[in-house]
Amino acid sequence: MPGMSGWKQVYDWFERRLQIEGPVKDAVLHKVPRNTASWWYVFGSAAFTLLMLQVVTGILLALVYVPSAAEAWNSLNILNHQVPLGWFLRAIHAWGSNFMVAVVFIHMAQVFLFGAYKFPRELTWTVGVFLLLMTLGMAFTGQVLRFDQDAYWGLGIGVFIMSRVPWVGGGLVHLLLGGPVIAGATLSRFFALHVFVIPGTLLFLAAVHIWMVLKLGVNEWPMPGRLVRKETYVEEYNKLAHEDGIPFVPGAFWKDLVFSGAVLAAVAVCAAVFGPSGPGGQPDPSIIQTVPKPDFPFLWIYAVLSYLPPSMETPFILIAPILMIAGLLAVPFVASEGEKSWHRRPIAVLALSLVAVSWAVFTHLAMSTPWSPHMSAWSGDTLPVKYLQEATPLVRQGAVIFQAKQCRNCHSVDGRGGERGPALDAVATRMTPDQMRYKVVTGGGNMPAYGKNLSPPEIEALVSFLETLHPANEPPAFDASRHLAETSSAPQPVSAKP
Amino acid sequence: MNPFKQSWDGETDNVACWVRREGSSQFTVFAINCAHLGCPVRWFPQSQLFMCPCHGGVYYADGSRASGPPERGLFTYDYKIANGQLQINAGQMPSLSNTAKLVNIAVPAKQGPGKDGDCGCRG
C-alpha cells in the first residue's frame, strides 16, 4: 500500500497529464449570487440525479432483459419473480422514470416562472426543451420495452397517429415498426432507441446544458423592476455574484444534495410500496380482452384525443405537437429581455397556470376514462331491486333487453355502468316515450342506431322499462300536444271544403 | 409467407380478426383494429355491434361506423377460399395510410368459426 506521499505521487502523475484540477476548482468554487442558494433551485440537479439513477438501473436491467419479441415478456416476469430483488430493480426504474418526467416538468415550470431563460441563457432553455423531449421519448420507448399488452396496443395507437400524416404516413409507420406489423423488428428498434440513441443524446445534451449553467452562472433571484438588458446584464450579474456571492460548493450545492437524496429516497419508497410496473398481459394480439392505456406522462393525450370532435382529430394530431414545440423553443427569443419577476409577468403566470390546470384535468379524466364503454357492465352490473319491484312483465322484459343488448355498457343506472352516454336513472323525466323510441331506433350523437338490431316488440319492452326510470316525486315527461289533442274540447281542425 | 417474419417474433406473430360468414363461401374479414386509433374491437352478438374499449367507437355488424370517434368503418382483409381453407391477406397492420393487405394466412374454412367468429390467425 502506498503511503500518503505515494497517493500524492499517483495523483500528480494523472493531474500532470489530465490537468483537470483547475477547471474542476473553477466550477466548484465559482461565485453565485447568495439568493440563488434557494430550495427553488434544486430541480435541475434532481433531474440529473434521476437520469444517473435511470442509467445505473437500466444497465442492471439490461443484464437480464432479453430484447426479443418472443422472450422480452418472459424475461421481465423472471426479473419480477425469480431474480432476487429483480422486482425492486424494475420498480426503481419505473418510478425513477415517473419522478424524472415530473421533476423535469417542475424544473421547466420553475425556470419559466423565474424568467431564467432570458439573455444570455436562451440556448440553455433551448437545449432544455430537447432534454424534455428526450425524457418523454425515454418514457415512451421504455413503455414499449415492457412489451406487454399495453405496449403492443400503445404501439398500435402510434401507428394510427403516424398513418394520418399526409403522403409520408405509410413510410413513417414502416419506419416506426421496422416492418408491416408490430413484431420482433419493432422491439429491436425500440431497444436501440431506448438504450443507445436517446440516452446518448440525453447525456450529451445534459452535459451541454450543465456546461452552460456553469459558464453563464446560476440565474439570480428575480426582483421586480430589475430588468434584463443585453448591454448591461453580464456586468450586473458578475457584480452581484462577486459583491454578494457565495461559492457554489458548498454554499448552494448542499441543498441540491439534500433534495436529490430526498428524491432518491422517495423513488425507493414508491418502488417498495407500489412495486414494479407490470408487465401486464402477454403481447399476443389475438388476446383482445384488454383496455390499453398509456403510461402516466401520456394520459393527457389519451384524454384529449377522446374529447376532440372526429373532424378536428387529424389536424390536431398533426399540428398541435409542432405548435407546442415551436412555442416552447420560441419563448426565450420572444422575451429575451425585460422583467424576470413573476410579480410583473401576469401573462406568463396565467399561461403556466392554464397549462398546469389543463394537464391536471385531462390526466385526471384519463384515469377514470368516462368516455370508454364498460365492456362487461351488461353482464356484470346488477340492476337494483327497486327498478324491478312491482314491474309488469313487459317492463321486466325491457330490463332484460336493456342489459342483454349492452345498453348498460354506455349508460349507467344507479351509479353503475358506462359513462359514455348519459345516466338513465331519470331518463323518463327528460324524454317522452316517442322520443325514446326515436332515439333507440335512429341513434344519433354518440349512440348507435338500434333500429336494425332490435325488433319492434323489443323496442316496445325497452321503452316501457325506460319509462319507469324517474324519481318517485317527479312525473315522467309527456307529449303536451298529444295530451292536449286527447283532452281538449276545442274544435278539431277540419279540412276546408272548396 | 410473410417475408418479414422472424423466428423471434413470438406471439406478436398472431393476427386477430373477426370473420363474418355471409354465405357458404362468402365471408367478410374485419381487422381487429378500431379505425380510430387501432385498439382491439370486441363483437357483441346480442346487440350485433362491435365496440371499442378505448374511446368508444361502435360499428354495426357489416363493419360500418355506428357512432363514436372513428371516421370510417372497420378495415377489412382480402381473402380467398383455397382447398377448403379460408386464406386471409393479413400481413400488414391496417391503418389510415394503407389498405391492409399483404400476406396469406390460412384457417380451415370447414372448421371456421361460423358467423362472426374470432380467428386467432397465425402468420
| Biggest β-sheet strands, sense, barrel of chain B | 4 strands, antiparallel
Helical coverage of chain A, percent range: 55-70%
Instruction: Give the tally of structural domains of chain A.
Output: 2
Total strands of chain A: 2
The whole-angstrom Rg of chain B is 14 Å
CATH topology of the largest domain in chain A: Cytochrome Bc1 Complex, Chain C
Per DSSP, the total helix count of chain A is: 21
Order of helices and strands of chain B: EEEEEEEEEEE
Distance between the termini of chain B: 7 Å
Please identify the top-level CATH class of chain B: Mainly Beta
Largest interface chains and counts: A-B, 63 and 56 residues
Shape of chain B: globular
Q: How much helicity do the residues of chain B have?
A: under 10%
Average pLDDT of chain B, to the nearest integer?
Answer: 77
- Strand fraction of chain A equals under 5%
CATH architecture of chain B: 3-layer Sandwich
Note the main sheet of chain A: 2 strands, antiparallel
Round the mean pLDDT of chain A to the nearest integer and report it: 90
- According to CATH, what is the topology of chain B? Rieske Iron-sulfur Protein
Strand proportion of chain B, as a percent range, falls in: 35-45%
**What order do the helices and strands of chain A follow?**
HHEHHHHHHHHEHHHHHHHHHHH
